[in-house]
Amino acid sequence: MSGWRSIAYRAARPLLFRFEPERIHRLTINALRLAGANPIGRAVLRAAGGANRSPDHAADLLGLRFRNRVGIGAGFDKDGQALRGWAALGPGFAEVGTVTPLPQPGNPRPRLYRLPDDEALINRMGFNNAGAAALARRVMLARRHLPPGFVVGVNLGRGAATDAEQTTADYVEAYRLAAPVADYVAVNVSSPNTPGLRDLQDPDLLVGLLRTLRHAGEQMRAERPLLVKLAPDVEAHAFDALVAALAGAADGLILGNTTVSRTGLHSPLRAEPGGLSGRPLRQAMLAAVSRGRSIAPATVIIASGGIGSADDVAAAYAAGADLVQLWTGLVYHGPGLIGEASTVRHHGPDTIAGI
């Protein structure tokens, strides 16, 4: 990354990294929320993000118009508190959540760790959130202030205390509360921090869950494009079977989530339990996107994981991604990464999937 935004963030990062990661994360969300609520703050955010707002970079996907192909991944703004701030920074979309039907505190702190030597994070947050009803209210209130082409996705999860037999009911209840205010809905079955959640990465279980959610949407008259977020740790043969089954059941795939792998890490905190995100996921993400595109050529694919530069975005597009999401890259490179990523041109045709 080059330019004054990069220089400014590199100068500030050592100070930011002196503080506990979750505290800085909370302060960041609050700053985005406050800045997004007033014209001067929004102007500052537009300058900090430096996003490309040219109509030439817009995309028509999932039956939606994205002003550009760069988004904020789920987990950064779990409760949808900073949507106006995100919109001012300039991405084409933000995916809020993961949200569960009822509020839950998540796992005990500390639960978020920086791995600077690896440009990575480890988290074991455990779907800490204020509940689907609270998120839905925030999205609804933000809607009239959001610019055209800024898409809001809502990522759904299962409650930590929910029995396996009640899993579908949990997702349906979260959908019932959140889908009416969402542009698309993502089904998270891949977090390593909710026990048993990854067991849902079974073709029959997933297809059945998606059918139930579609039926719920039809009954509510709140049908939304459905995407599924898969883990990068799925074995190749199981991944192929999953993608093949989802090609006819889901409108899109998010590839992928955090990993439990610790291969090749150097940071002292590499053994902390939880999900690893950031630079080490880049190659696994690109491999999953390429493999997913070959199996499901008509399914929208969002590349998520290991993106920290324009070159990473270009590689994701070349592998077959339609959209990209940022998360850990923002921690290490700052908001200017949004602008850098948004300048990369997507040379392939749009994958027009959706309802």
Overview in brief:
With 355 residues, the chain is an alpha/beta fold.
Describe the structure.
There is one protein chain. With 355 residues, the protein is of the alpha/beta class. It has helices at residues 4-16, 21-36, 39-49, 83-89, 132-143, 167-178, 203-220, 236-246, 282-295, 310-319, 328-333, 336-342, and strands spanning 59-61, 64-66, 70-72, 93-99, 112-115, 120-123, 151-156, 184-188, 226-230, 252-255, 275-278, 300-304, 323-326. The chain has an 8-stranded parallel β-barrel, surrounded by 6 helices. A 3-stranded antiparallel β-sheet has the order 5-6-11. Strands 1-2 form a two-stranded antiparallel sheet. Strand 5 (112-115) and strand 6 (120-123) form a beta hairpin. Helix 2 (21-36) crosses helix 3, helix 2 (21-36) packs across helix 4 and helix 3 (39-49) crosses helix 4. The longest helix is centred in the middle third of the chain and has 18 residues, at 203-220. It starts with a helix and ends in a 13-residue tail after the last helix. 52% of the residues are buried.
Secondary structure layout:
Blueprint: H1 4-16, H2 21-36, H3 39-49, E1 59-61, E2 64-66, E3 70-72, H4 83-89, E4 93-99, E5 112-115, E6 120-123, H5 132-143, E7 151-156, H6 167-178, E8 184-188, H7 203-220, E9 226-230, H8 236-246, E10 252-255, E11 275-278, H9 282-295, E12 300-304, H10 310-319, E13 323-326, H11 328-333, H12 336-342
Parallel strand pairs: 3-4, 3-13, 4-7, 7-8, 8-9, 9-10, 10-12, 12-13
Antiparallel strand pairs: 1-2, 5-6, 6-11
Helix pairs in contact: 2-3, 2-4, 3-4, 5-6, 6-7, 7-8, 9-10
